[in-house]
Structure formats: C-alpha cells, structure tokens
Amino acid sequence: MIHSQFALLGTRRFLPLFLTQSLGAFNDNVFKNALVILITFELASGLGADPALMVTAAAGIFILPFFLFSATAGQLADRYDKASMIRLVKLIEVALMLGATVGFHLQSAGYLLAILFLMGAQSAFFGPLKYAILPDHLARDELISGNGLIQAATFLAILLGTLIGGIFILADGGTGIISIAVVTLAIAGWLASRAIPATGSAAPGLKVRLNFLAETWSMVARGARRPEIFRPTLAVSWFWLVGATFLAQVPTFGKVSLGGDEGLVTLLLLLFSLGIGTGSLLCNRLLGGEIHLTYVPFGALGISLFALELYFASSGGPSLQTGGAVGTTQFLSSWSGCRIALDVFLIAVSGGIYIVPLNAVIQSRSEQTHRARNIATVNILNALFMVISAVVSALLLALNFTVPELFLILALFNLGAILFAARAL
Fold first, then answer.
1. HEC profile for 224-251?
2. Rounded CA gap, 74 and 283, in Å?
C-alpha cells in the first residue's frame, strides 16, 4: 500500500527522529569541513606539516571509531531503550561541540583532531540507533518511505554542511561563526531527540561485551551465517564505496577534468545530492510501500550505465575551457556540460533507488532482539569499504589515472553489483 511519505513528517513517531538525524549530519559536516579548510590553509603551515597528509589523517581519524565502537554501539542499542540512548548520544554531541569552540579559539590542530575522533565515536554510537529504531515506530509498509526520507535528507545535509563549513571558516570572525553554528545545531538536535517516543528494550537480558575486537568479529561472523541479511549488508557497503568515491573525486573532477571554478564544483555536488534524494524518494512510488529488492539490480545497472556515459562525456578533458575557469553558466550553456550534469544526477538517482530498499530489507529481516547489532555490522563494513575506496583511488591517481578513468573502472566493477544484488532478492 502506498502511503504519502511526506505525511510521516507530520507524526511524532517519525519527525523528531528525522530532525535529529538531519541536524546531526548537517553538524558533522559543518565541523568536519571547517576543520579540513582550517588545516589546509592555516594550521598545517603553522606546524610545518603537509596539508594533504593532515587532511588524509583527519579523514582516517573520523572513520576509525566506526571500526572501534560500532560493535559496542549495536549491543547498547539492543540492550537499552533506543530513544533514551539517542538523547544521551545527542547530549554528548553538545558537550563535544562546546569543546570544539575551545579548539577553534586556541587554533590547536591536535585538540581539534581529538574532537574529530570523538565526533566520529558519537556518530558510530548513533548509527545503529537511527536505523534500528525505524521499525519500532513505523509500520512495515512505511519503512520504504521512512528510509527514503532519511536517506534524502542525509545527503542534502552533508552537502549543505560541507558548503557552510567551507564558506564561513576563513571569513572574518569565521571561527566564531562556526563555533556558534555547531553548538546551536547540537542543541537543536538534542531538543529534537527529546520528542522521540520510547521504544523499550529489545534485548533486556543482553550482556554487553566491551572487547570490541572480539565482538566485532563475532557480529560479522554471525551476519555471514545469515545470507538473507548479509548479502544486502554487503550490497549496502558497496553503495558507500561507490558513493564515497564519487563524492571524494567530484571536486577534482570539476576543477581538473572540466576546468571548472568553485561554482561548477558546487553545482556537481548539488546535483549528486539532489539525485540521491530524488532516487530515495522515488522508491516509495516504485515499490508501492512494499519491501522487496526488485529494483535494486536496476539501480546498480543505472549507476554503471550513467558512469560509463560520464566517462565518455568527459574523457576528452576540459574542452569547455576557453580561457580562465569554466563557470556554471558557461558549463550549462553547452551540450557537453548539460550531458555531464545529467549523468551525475542520474548516477545519484540510480544510487537512491539502489540503497533505500536494501536498508529496509535489513531492518525487516532482522529479529527485533538483534536488529541494532545487524545494523552495527553494516556500519563496520561500510567503514571498511570506504577505506578501500580511498586507498584504491589514491593508488590509481598516483599511477596517473585520470578521474574520468577512475569513474570508468568503478562503472565496470559495479556491473558485478548487478548480479550480486539479484542474488540478494
């Protein structure tokens, strides 16, 4: 049965969680990108360090907690009331952002990187909660709608947070502006979380094991024994490998491959985020509110086809450039520019159609007492696949592959995801 997915935004069982997640994703990216820009243009030179290496280290520092703490986070989310745990995690975010204001004031790279690590840990603990709680408050035929809205809002929040963090941090009084922003957003997220209805404990007798290495291995091994859950899990992690590759390479693609300015790079990022949102919201219409994976292989096929088309559209280099950097108006006034823009948008639309049903399937196939731990397993593998994306991309670029060639390789490897997704049906 098709529900109006936007009607969920008028319900207490969904809206507070939606706001909490959106504000959190927005805040994470305001802080992360502000720190990256600050390191690149100010802090690294003051320390005599290589900015590129420090930025790479920052990315690793943020993702490391997902390996270290996701297993514990999944256990806690199954053991205790999820709404109460979300409120605690968001309160910790307020404290961390207050700490970040001190770091911005001191201009201390080490201190801010420590805060970044703790923010990564906070995100790792929030991850299993935000997806595991959806089946507690939504009917089965509302899960596609809820996941679609969460996915769409997350990518838009990532884009807006990245833009705002980058725009304001180097402006006059920028550290003060960012400090006020991140604390305000954290408080707003905590206030929104206070309205999330209680869920009760899914596994009140669960004994939480703090040995994260043993528990991480145990969770992944347990998941591997459940192919009806593990196959969609791997398919979700592949999406994050593909998505992380595109998001990481879009700035270089826009600047180097297309000869574009900052406005063109922003346009491409906006098109990618809007595409994910569009594809995510389309899922409710395509699936009629039912949870199945019928369209997932077609989403994977769309990613490959449009990525191949993007390669052919852009592999000739910055042909649009006639003197100076290519602006947005000049780019969109040409057929090749419109073609590239449409390719980027449709890759992302295909990604939205691919990812939303997979998340809903994992939620619906998981027993209530183990749902959060299954989602924690997803987060662990997501982090692993994103690290693989970064390492392989860096190696290929070091071997003088162009970004369009990197997209070509990704498109060809992604063809295997079509067959894999079909097996997950």
1. HCCHHHHHHHHHHHHHHHHHHHHHHHHH
2. 27
The reply to whether 101 falls in a domain is yes
Same domain flag for 297 and 149: no
Are 329 and 253 in contact by the 8 Å Cβ rule? The answer is no
Cα 128 from Cα 256, distance rounded (Å): 38
**Spatial distance between the Cα atoms of 361 and 355, rounded to a whole number of angstroms:** 10
DSSP-assigned letter for residue 325: P
Q: What is the pTM of this model?
A: 0.89
What total number of domains does the chain contain? 2
| Predicted confidence (pLDDT) per residue in 367-404, tens digit | 988 999 999 999 999 999 999 988 888 888 888 888 89
Check pLDDT > 80 for residue 5. no
Phi/psi of residue 260, nearest 5 degrees: -90, 170
Collect all residues with Cβ–Cβ distance below 8 Å to 62 and sequence separation of at least 6: 32, 116, 117, 119, 120, 123
Domain boundary residue among 188, 210, 232?
Answer: 210
Length of the chain: 425
Distance CA 227, CA 234 (A): 10
29, 116 in Cβ contact below 8 A? Answer: no
231, 199: one domain: no
* Shared domain check, 188 and 161: yes
Owning domain of residue 160: 1-210
- Give the CATH number of the domain where residue 65 resides: 1.20.1250.20
Report which of 321, 313, 304 is spatially closest to residue 342, judged by C-alpha positions. Answer: 313
